[in-house]
Amino acid sequence: MVGANGESRYAPAPPKPSDPDGFCFHSPHPEVFSGQARHHHRHSHQNMASLKLQPADQKVLPKAKKTGTTICGLICHREGCVVLGADTRATSEAIIADKNCSKIHYLAPNIYCCGAGTAADTEHVTQLISSNLKLLRLNSGRQSRVDVACVLLKRHLFPYQGYVSAALVLGGVDFTGPHIYQVWPHGSTDSLDYVTMGSGSMAAMSMFESRYSHDLTLDQCKDLVHDAVLAGIFNDEGSGSNVDITIIERNKPAQILRNMDTPNTRLHPMRFQMPLKNTVVLREFIELHEAAPVAPAAVPAPAKKAEDEERAAMPLE
Amino acid sequence: MDAPITRTLEPINTGTSVVGITYKDGVLIASDTLVSYGSLSRFRSIQRLVSIGPCLIGASGDYSDFQHITDLLTQKVDEASFHQDGFQYTAPELFEYLCRVMYERRSKVNPYWNRVVMAGSKQGKPFLGCVDLYGTHYASPTVATGYGEQLAQPILRKEWHPDMSLEEAHALLEKCMRVLLYRDCYTINKVQFARIGLDGQTTIEPPAPLTGTRWEAPLTITLP
Amino acid sequence: MLTPAVAPIEAKKKEWSPYTDNGGTTLAIAGPDYAIVAADTRLSNGYSISCRDVTKLAQLTQHCVIGTAGMQADRAVFHKLLRTRVDYFKYKYGKTITPTALAQMIANILYGHRFFPYYCFNVVGGLDAQGHGVVFSYDAVGSYQALPYATTGSGAQLLEPLLDSHIAQRNRTQKNPPMSKDEAIAFVKNAMASVSERDIHTGDFLEIAVITREGTQIITREADGVERIKLGFD
């Protein structure tokens, strides 16, 4: 018997390229890519061509943690602020990799960004842009602007032609007012009143399209974003667990409502009594080592007090 | 030389979402009246909801397949009535037959390229079922096919309750059809509602544009 | 003459697969004087939940229940076929088919469809002639085996090690006596809730068939008789 799930018996999987290095063009073992590249150690562009021409479903890439996601954001015009929302499920194919991950990333004190797609891409892209925004603030001494964040993001994403798979909902308030941007992995952006992204985007959009209006109060906006995320959580299998919301108002610290709703608590919990020393021990041994000489205690470095104070004095943080 | 055997490998003339819910006194379903030819709005006034014997059906997917399914079900209902013994199929019985037909065709790897919604009543209670081109079938108080599964089902699951009045049910489906009009490319604003009461009485409303649609531009238009 | 470095890849022929996976997890446990077959009730279609309440269980005889994960349309037909075969057996031989015989019959039916298989991943639970619980687990083309416990479907990989630890009590110095029926029911609830925490296609409600000498009881509600046995809804 080929395991209980013996699909392989009658529907063998398509043969996978035996390439252990996956998508690496400059492998130290070029012969794994192509027989023709065996005898010269220059970079062979033929390998690149043959990889590019492989059908997409045969490319072997390492499995990445995805945030099959519901993320959304809207502008509350009545009170000049922005509400962002996200679920907290991260998946690796059909398995839930993280039940309470955080998808609303910090970009600047007045700008946050929800990320869908490959978790690593969303996390690193937002960290990079956050860092660049900080440098801009230190250089200019001014508050970060949302459209600048948007431009930095799209300038980063566009050259990667979608291979940096970050689908983002960017939101913030600057001196020009509240802004919500939808940022696609290929680098295109939309500036809209309300946007959704991720596998649950349609579920969330069904709430927005049926209930959004320009004169909602902040409380109503918060409820709407909450319901949009819940629609994703309960109707999209790629989304689940809890609701995170971030509210950004003008000249106020952002309200980060992490796990503001936890509608999926553990069901049928059970206590398992495990007696001590219940594991079968096959072999037990103790190795004796000579004690290593004790290193002299390191002299603590003097605190960079002046620099810290200088940083604390920086405006707009 | 014999012509080669041909099969539906892709649908040609297609209809988009059908949505349906049960309410206190029956079942209400809705769809628009567009049949598309690829991305062309080919036929803009086609009734995609049909009353057959004890039930109402509607379908998304290939329209010619749907017409054929309609003929099959009509034949079945007529056959029974020719005996003049008073026997009539009930909606769940006809649904079971439809499921077998869909599954038989998928097993010939020549499916009817549809997702069919069937409405009627079962022992004095509303019945609403759905079957797809694989023969996957289920009965549920809220049903949506095509993009409706993504865009309407979340609204329906959130707002549906078993003792809705007809007016409430109508308003709920209108809301869903509006969202589908905004977000589904293959929709037009000519929508038809049909209902079937617990007594089997069917009413197919004439197609009409949706009211209450909103098309305001976003207040903030920022570049980039 | 220039030749292209790489031959162009032929356009893939358009093909439609008659198979679809509707997800779900089944679980069966053979106890000393009972057998349990359980499954969730979610019907998935890609990332959508088509329906929250579709049963995966079918009671075939007084002392035999089958649970099937995989493709719902195939399951419906397969269960229907099994019911007629069980009836036919009774008409032909004047007695109800035993779970062990039925298990072999199921394997034969599955293998009969070797080259256009039912996309069904079955577990079967029942009582043998001595009244002891028996469980059988199948692949889609009829390979089967009698086991003390079995699981199939989208959450099987998650459930299997849990069962190894708690039912078989592998790698333990002190083993507990086999679970009683009520302990097993509580364990099944906990185990299936755990699967629905981590498998996206498993969830909504739980149905538990408990087979004892007295017959089969399919539990769909909590002790209060009102609330359904819930699993994760997300």
UniProtKB/TrEMBL annotation, chain A:
Gene Ontology CC: proteasome complex
Matching CDD domains: proteasome_beta_type_7
UniProt xrefs under Gene3D superfamilies: Glutamine Phosphoribosylpyrophosphate, subunit 1, domain 1
Stretches assigned to coiled coil: none
Compositionally biased tracts (Basic and acidic residues): 304-317
Pfam families named in the record: Proteasome
Keywords: Hydrolase, Nucleus, Protease, Proteasome, Threonine protease
PANTHER family found in the cross-reference section: METALLOPROTEASE TLDD, PROTEASOME SUBUNIT BETA TYPE-7
Designated name of the protein: Proteasome subunit beta type-7
Source organism: Paratrimastix pyriformis
UniProtKB/TrEMBL annotation, chain B:
GO cellular component: proteasome complex
KW RNA-binding (keyword) present: no
Record SUPFAM superfamilies: N-terminal nucleophile aminohydrolases (Ntn hydrolases)
Cell location: Cytoplasm; Nucleus
Nucleus in keyword set: yes
InterPro entries recorded: Ntn_hydrolases_N, Proteasome_beta4, Proteasome_bsu_CS, Proteasome_sua/b, Proteasome_suB-type
Keyword set, alphabetical order: Cytoplasm, Nucleus, Proteasome
A Pfam family per the record: Proteasome
Highest taxon of source: Eukaryota
Role: Non-catalytic component of the proteasome.
Similarity-based family: Belongs to the peptidase T1B family.
PANTHER family: METALLOPROTEASE TLDD, PROTEASOME SUBUNIT BETA
Name of the protein described by the UniProt record: Proteasome subunit beta
Organism for this UniProt entry: Paratrimastix pyriformis
TrEMBL record, chain C:
Pfam families: Proteasome
Assembly notes: Component of the proteasome complex.
Family: Belongs to the peptidase T1B family.
GO cellular component, one term: proteasome complex
InterPro entries xref list: Ntn_hydrolases_N, Proteasome_bsu_CS, Proteasome_sua/b, Proteasome_suB-type
UniProt cross-references to Gene3D superfamilies, sorted A to Z: Glutamine Phosphoribosylpyrophosphate, subunit 1, domain 1
Location of this chain's protein in the cell: Cytoplasm; Nucleus
Keywords, sorted A to Z: Cytoplasm, Nucleus, Proteasome
Role: Component of the proteasome, a multicatalytic proteinase complex which is characterized by its ability to cleave peptides with Arg, Phe, Tyr, Leu, and Glu adjacent to the leaving group at neutral or slightly basic pH. The proteasome has an ATP-dependent proteolytic activity.
Primary localization: cytoplasm
Protein name: Proteasome subunit beta
Superkingdom of source: Eukaryota
